[in-house]
Amino acid sequence: LWRLGYSARLLKTNHFRTAASNTSSPAVWMLLARSSGRIPGVFVVVKKNSFFTMPETVEDKTTLELYSPHPQVRGMTLLNREAFKRTVVVPVLKVKKEMVNTLLKSLKHTVLQRPGLKRVVEDPEDEDSRLVILDPHKIPEFSLGESELEVLKQLDIRPEVSKYNLELTYENFKSEEILRAVLPEGQEVTSGFSRVGHIAHLNLRDHQLQYRHLIGQVIIDKNPGISCVVNKTSMIDSTYRNFEMEVLAGEGNLVTKVKENNIAYKLDFSKVYWNPRLSTEHGRIIELLKPGDVLFDVFAGIGPFAIPAAKKRCNVFANDLNPESYNWLLHNCKLNKVGNKIKAFNMDGRDFLLGPVREELSKELPLLKEEQKTSFHIVMNLPALAVEFLDVFRHLLAGEPCSTASLPTVHCYGFSKHDDPAKDIQERAEASLGTSLDGRCSTYLVRNVAPNKEMLCISFQIPAEVLYKRPCP
């Protein structure tokens, strides 16, 4: 059946291009079908005047248009959902009602698979029949292939492919398809976002700003549960780790609830720092802790390290300079019933290390015995500045270490644009500490923040010669 396929394609391309585009010429389709060998001996003629024949005024470019909104929406800045309506031609098979499910299973790779679009529609001419919509990408030129014909023969279904006017509306298109149709051709399309409770957070590029309100409304329409869309309008403030934002669409309420690693948090997204992309990293650090360990969280935010650590029955000291973060930390401690396991502070990170951290380490480390398994962890998640705080550990404690095993472990985060980011962050940490960390540290790539910008975590036990100031002999 396929012997003459290549010759037929050349024949159609070189000699019948104009005639083949005229779907009202059964003779042309008959010739092409027989030449190609796709249908042995006969070609099913599309009914020109039946109820589901495409009107002459609608272009038959199905494979290009099925998933594309109407071209007239290009450049739209105020969302007009009605403008996305269009009618395209798709192939259908007429099938008896009782055979529909069997056919859907037998031709599951050929039937139209598009969320939101019905695969089976009523047959106005026959209440006992249904029209099964086929994927136009799988049925080129509305002619069935050998495998489809064999299936229909076995099911005793007439292999008659007809055209059907399929109406597409705004609801039938995905957000990326809508935005690609609206924004200038060749420009980057933003359909991804960070979700924080009911809020979608975008970082739009300059060329997208004039479409920002339309983009926001499309995201609300296409993502159940999203009722507010914001765009960041400034870099993160390194002091309080929040940023200015503009509400693009939906309600202006930025107090929301989130759930991370089965723990609930409440926050005001406009006033505190929260990044859902750090969920895995929060979980990774918590996995390192054991019940009874002590965690010092220097830049705690609203508690994504502190609260799960307390849930794991660790003793936690959590600090944040931002008063809003501190208040939400207290709220979330109550929300998760771990207030008795967390001591919260609203201090500068350096003062927190020189005060509560030094006091607790000075008190607890001398009491540890060799057989005791308590570990001390210090988390410093302020990637823009945390490495600069490491000099605080120089001679933070007086005396001699009781045991090298009990030396606190630091998990310090930083950004790097270096070709070798792990080497870069290690060298910067060594410069702050005043000692080499070769063979005494590990680096972990947390995530790619931007092109050529990585976020890393360097973990190490504070060397005894750094942490302790030995008395003069």
Automatic annotation (TrEMBL):
MF term (GO), any: tRNA (guanine(37)-N1)-methyltransferase activity
Domain SAM-dependent methyltransferase TRM5/TYW2-type: 193-464
KW Methyltransferase (keyword) present: yes
An example Gene Ontology biological process: tRNA N1-guanine methylation
InterPro entries in the cross-refs: MeTrfase_TRM5/TYW2, SAM-dependent_MTases_sf, TRM5-TYW2-like_MTfase, TRM5/TYW2-like_N, tRNA_Gua_MeTrfase_euk
Listed Pfam families: TRM5-TYW2_MTfase, TYW2_N_2
Domain of life: Eukaryota
Reaction equations catalysed: guanosine(37) in tRNA + S-adenosyl-L-methionine = N(1)-methylguanosine(37) in tRNA + S-adenosyl-L-homocysteine + H(+)
Keywords: Cytoplasm, Methyltransferase, Mitochondrion, Nucleus, S-adenosyl-L-methionine, Transferase, tRNA processing
Any one GO CC term of the record: mitochondrial matrix
HAMAP family in alphabetical order: TRM5
Task of the protein: Involved in mitochondrial tRNA methylation. Specifically methylates the N1 position of guanosine-37 in various tRNAs. Methylation is not dependent on the nature of the nucleoside 5' of the target nucleoside. This is the first step in the biosynthesis of wybutosine (yW), a modified base adjacent to the anticodon of tRNAs and required for accurate decoding.
Family of this protein: Belongs to the class I-like SAM-binding methyltransferase superfamily. TRM5/TYW2 family.
Protein name per UniProt: TRM5 methyltransferase
Species for this entry: Atlantisia rogersi
Lineage: Eukaryota, Metazoa, Chordata, Craniata, Vertebrata
Gene: Trmt5
